[in-house]
Amino acid sequence: MLTTFPQLLLQHAARRPDAPALREKEYGIWQTHSWSGLARLVEQLAAGLHQAGLQRHEHLVVIGANRPRLYATMLAAQSLGAIPVPLYQDAVAAECIFPLNNAEVRFCLVEDQEQVDKLLEIRGQCPRISNIYYDDPRGLRNYREQGLASLDALLATGKAFVASNPAWFQAEVAQARPDDVAAMFFTSGTTGNPKGVVHTHSTLLDRATAGAEFDKLTSSEEVLAYLPPAWIGQNIFSYAQWLACGYVVNCPESASTVSIDLKEVGPTYYFAPPRIFEGLLTSVMIRMEDAGALKRKMFQACMAVAQRVGPALMDGQDVGLLDRVKYALGNLLVYGPLRNNLGFSRVRVAYTAGEAIGPDLFTFYRSIGINLKQLYGSTETAVFVCLQPDHEVRADTVGVPIRGVEIKVADNGEILVKSAGLLKEYYKNPTATAEVLTADGWYHTSDAGFIDAHGHLKIIDRVKDVGRLAGGANDGAMFAPKYVENKLKFFPHIKEAVALGDQRDRVCVMVNIDFDAVGNWAERRNLPYAGYTDLAQKPEVYELVRECIEKVNADLATDAMLAGSQISRFLVLHKELDADDGELTRTNKVRRGFIAEKYAVLVDALYAGRAEQYIETQVKFEDGRTGKVSATLKLSDAKVFPPVKAAA
């Protein structure tokens, strides 16, 4: 059985030499790489890296967007027994120092001039770096740095070596074993230095295959690869499952063309975090608000039908004949054109993961005929732990354990997982490894949750984040900050929220508005504003946010466990939370502790009952420069509701 990524590549090249493996949009035209062409490219790159001195078990860092030649270089490294380590292309230079030194990296492959400049900037702090190769030569003609060369030069060297050693590549690939390390992914480092998660060929391919079996994926699927390859979610969909199934991966021309490329490709298998789905829905709603009265009325009428019967139809339930006819008419007039406009007309399976998705958002996509489902997993579990079966999809759960997975709940509510997809170790960090892996093979997820009566897993929050209120009327009440934050983020006008309350007498939140959605809302009301900071502090915007918060409070009041987590006070931040400022991880997760410390003056003002507070904050711009943003922020109260007793 062929059980490594390079072996799977050669299998596809032998069985389906002319079938498309990868497509890349360049200058507006889709270029196709066949499996046989890709195998030749990988062979030449592997030979070039071998000639340059890349050794077995050595790490090779890859920084860039999804590009066929970057994928090919990862396969080339694996063919030599080396270990590709993808890093986030939007990370600032300083964030790359620890991974590069921790992994003792000599060889780096980057996409373009931006990434070359980043590595050259920190090269003095990463003395092991000897070779930097770049894919896109634009802007690099006059660079004369030692060890800097183009991927084309590496290919030329490799091509000459292959010509004189035709059997060499097959022999190298044959040496690989399933238990060899295949890749390393660095965690986002929310509470300290990132940790290198070590995965073997067998762990990644076991989970990729299990996921493919669950959703009956075949070689005929089309996938759009547009999220960072350093995120294991993208990597498992567009690399591990790609090689396991042999489907086609499409690489967009740039981040700005993704929506256009999505429509052109029409993927059948799609994956995105909730933020992407939120953004797509927000853009739809903005366009509908700007549409004529007749179109708006037709859209609202059809969506009312869709929300009532669409999810039931998607789940294979019985629906009355009249409702079926109404839905079919809505599909002709609204849902079908809308799916096509979003690029989802061919989607057979769509997944979201990484954060909780709002039930309204989730229901919207399923109601218009998109088979959107949730999954549960992490970098350490090679993603696939729980998936939602067709016809058993619920907005408040993340599915059932799939093939090869066992789950149990610890006494403190923590989810423990056992599967063949668990990490081998945290690189050079045996202490951290021992903390998450038990002697009998259970992985501590750090997530709090439970298995419901239907066998589905429900996640509440991170174990360490579940706290208690102290003092006041809700003394001792449970506080789950992420649960509260996610409820707020379900509203299209709220982009981010940071909930505070552990060991305090009440819950307060700091909010980021969605600039596009609220900006459009303001323009339709002839409300002038001069940028984010000005818009965020408008009294009208505060009333808009208050309405959202009070709806959340009314909902929380019906939950016996979390009624005490209702939000008493709030403010709208003067700037958007940003990964470059350390406030978010590179996967856009809120670093709650860091934010509470950075904005301590605002936290104190919220709990002191002040009506306003001045703050000055340092920010980092994309070009590396720093500046300051200052504002006097309003602090407001929100209505809380008495707990609603469940009916007997």
3D structure, described in words:
With 648 residues, the protein is an alpha/beta fold. Among the domains are: 5-271, Rossmann fold (3-Layer(aba) Sandwich), CATH 3.40.50.980; 466-637, GMP Synthetase, Chain A, domain 3 (2-Layer Sandwich), CATH 3.30.300.30. Helices cover 39% and strands 22% of the residues. The protein contains 21 helices and 28 strands. Strands 4-3-5-6-7 form a 5-stranded parallel sheet, with helices on both faces. The relative contact order is 0.07.
Describe what is shown at a glance.
By secondary structure, this protein is an alpha/beta fold. Among the domains are: 5-271, Rossmann fold; 466-637, GMP Synthetase, Chain A, domain 3. It is built from 21 helices and 28 strands.
Task: List its salient traits.
alpha/beta, 28 strands, GMP Synthetase, Chain A, domain 3, Rossmann fold, 21 helices, single chain, five-stranded parallel sheet, 648 residues, five-stranded mixed sheet
- Low confidence ranges: none
Report on the biggest sheet: 5 strands, parallel
Helix content: 25-40%
DSSP strand count? 28
Question: What is the topology?
Answer:
Elements: H1 5-15, E1 20-26, E2 29-34, H2 35-52, E3 59-63, H3 68-79, E4 83-87, H4 93-102, E5 107-110, H5 113-122, E6 131-134, E7 148-150, H6 151-164, H7 168-174, E8 181-186, E9 196-200, H8 201-214, E10 222-224, H9 232-245, E11 248-251, H10 258-265, E12 269-271, H11 274-290, H12 293-314, H13 321-342, E13 349-352, H14 359-367, E14 372-376, E15 386-387, E16 400-401, E17 405-409, E18 414-419, E19 425-426, H15 430-436, E20 443-451, E21 457-462, E22 467-468, E23 478-479, H16 481-489, E24 494-500, E25 507-513, H17 515-524, H18 532-536, H19 539-556, E26 567-572, H20 592-598, H21 600-608, E27 612-620, E28 626-637
Parallel strand pairs: 1-11, 3-4, 3-5, 5-6, 6-7, 10-11, 12-13, 13-14, 25-26
Antiparallel strand pairs: 1-2, 8-9, 9-19, 14-15, 15-16, 17-18, 18-20, 20-21, 22-23, 24-25, 26-28, 27-28
Helix pairs in contact: 1-2, 1-3, 2-3, 2-6, 4-5, 8-9, 11-17, 12-13, 12-14
